[in-house]
Write the C-alpha cells for this entry.
Amino acid sequence: MAGGIWVVGEVQNGQLARVSGEVATLARRLGSESGRDVTGVVVAAEPALGTAAAELARFAPRVLAVPAPETAGQPVAAVAAGYLAALVALHEPAYVLLGASPDGRDLAGALSALLGWGVLANATAAAWGDGGPTVDLSIFGGRLFTTCGFTGDRGLITVRTNAVTAEPAASAGIVEAVAVTPAVTLPAVQVVDRTSETGAAAPIEEARIIVAGGRGVAGPEGFGLVRDLADALGGSVGATRAAVDAGWINYAHQIGQTGKIVKPALYLALGISGAIQHKVGMQTAETIVAVNRDPDAPLAQDADLFVVGDLFDVGTALLAELRARRG
C-alpha cells in the first residue's frame, strides 16, 4: 500500500456518511489515472465500525476496519487522528482523502499537525497531473476558482460535499480488521452539555428538492409558507445565512459558504437575492427556480426560471395548485 491513495470513511449515526462514498469514487478515479492502489479506512466503535466498513467496501477495493471503542462520545479528530497517523506511518500511503464535513475538516487538521503534511481544502474536483493530484478549489467565497497541487509527494485533500456523484464499484471490496496502537493519545474532551433538536428525516445535503427562504421571507412566520411548499413537493427546507442570523430558522437549514453545500434536482428560492456566499452552496442544483420582486437580483443570472413578483403571492398560488393536483 506504500504510495497508495487512502480514503477515510466517516461515520454518521452508525452508518457511512454519504460524502465518504463520494470521496471514495473520486479516489478510485485518481487510482485509475495514476495506477495506484486505493484503500479505505474506517476508525470507529462497533457496531458502527462493521456497518460503515462494509458500506465503504462498495466503493473501495480494500477497507481497513480499525476498532476504537473510545470514539463513543468523543469528537472524531480527538480519537481517530492517533490511529490514522499510526497506520500512515506503517503503510506509507502518498495521499489521504477526506470529506470536507465538520468532522473531516477537524480530522484533516489534526492529521496535518501529526504527519507534517500539507492540506488542500474543500476541493470541488481532482485529477491526476504531472506526478500527483491537481485539485480544483473554490476560493474567496466562491468568487474565484483555482487549481493547486502539492510541492511534495504527500498530502491531504478534503473534498466538498456533493462535488462528486457517488458511484459504487463494479464489485465490492474486501474488509480487513486491523488493530493498531495510536501514534498519540489526545486529551479526552469533556462534554458539558448536549442539545438535541428535531431535524428532517434526511440531511438537507441529500434532499432531491429544496425550498429555501431568504431575507425576503421577512420573519419566522414567512417560513410557514416555505415549509408548506417543501411538504407539498416532498422536499426539505433551506435558508440563507441572513435568515438564520435573524433567528427565523435554525442553522441546520443554512445553505452557502458557511452552511451546507447542496445539489438537489430542484432548488426553489423564495426571497433570496443570490449573494455569492449563498450561491456557493447551491449553484450546482440541476434546476433553479427563483421568486423575487427585484428583477436585477443576482440569482436571476443563475436561475433556469426567474419569477418577478411577491413571494407570498406566487408561493401561495403555487401551493394551492400543488394541493389541487394532489387532490
